[in-house]
Amino acid sequence: MNIIAQTEDNRLITTQDEEVQHIALDQIKANPYQPRKTFDDTKLDDLAGSIRQHGILQPIVLRQTIKGYHIVVGERRFRASQRVGLTTIPAIVKTMTDEDMMELAIIENLQREDLNAIEEAESYRKLMDDLQLTQQEVATRLSKSRPYIANMLRLLNLPTEIMRMIRDEQLSGAHGRTLLAVKDKRTMNKMAQQAYEESWSVRYLEDCINSAKNSKTSKQASTSKKKPKFIQQQERQLRDQYGSKVNISTVNKKGHITFEFTSEEEFKQLIQQLNAQYRK
């Protein structure tokens, strides 16, 4: 006999030759691997009202432990049943490993209707970290493309404040990915706040970022033209020698030579070159 268990977002799990049991609510605990920590009270009240009127139409799925049961699928129905005052709940008890529990909890979380882009990205990261999966393996398991997974994970590189804005639906995930093109975090936060306050579309935000970049490039070009030719020549020579962008500036008869690096590896390589030159 096949029994169909339903997830919180209408995904169906088929179990074979397993009977529905009525399990006491006080023996059931939440899935310890459940990434979802908060539940909408209004939606839980609505579900409780439905259960009060029609009962529980689909059993939840549990895993038996030494001290009772852990929820595999159906935590919202479990919580709503507590609100109604039920003492038992129909359930299917399945045998599964910790890894199975972990993966199913994360996948179920990914299928929530109210999932925001940051929560989605965090779920992909949790799958990768907890189950030691690559981006390609996550993409295959979830029937998504690897570039899609990679683009979602990039959102986790945003400043905390911008991630909060996406969680609160003040900005979309697409706004967040667009803002990643801004390298300066203060500028990024400022543009994010402005985009929220003025209801910028993603396209308009992109245009503003490109405009700011073009303006900066023009300013740098203008500054470069004002430098004496021999300084520009020295910058080119140092750049060729050390493989790094170099800026030489003079203010009030004081000069600065600045080397640019974009990673720790480039920094270490530059220091080694400078030390080797100093010892000559």
Could you characterize the architecture of this molecule?
With 280 residues, this protein is α/β, with parallel strands linked by helices. The protein folds into 3 domains: 2-115, Alpha-Beta Complex (Conserved hypothetical protein from pyrococcus furiosus pfu- 392566-001, ParB domain); 158-216, no CATH class; 227-279, no CATH class. It contains 12 helices and 9 strands. The strands form 3 sheets. It has a 5-stranded mixed β-sheet. It has a two-stranded antiparallel ribbon with strand order 1-2. β1 (2-6) and β2 form a beta hairpin. The longest helix is centred in the C-terminal third of the chain and has 25 residues, at 202-226. It is elongated, with a radius of gyration of 28 Å. The N and C termini lie far apart (83 Å). One of its GO terms (molecular function) is DNA binding.
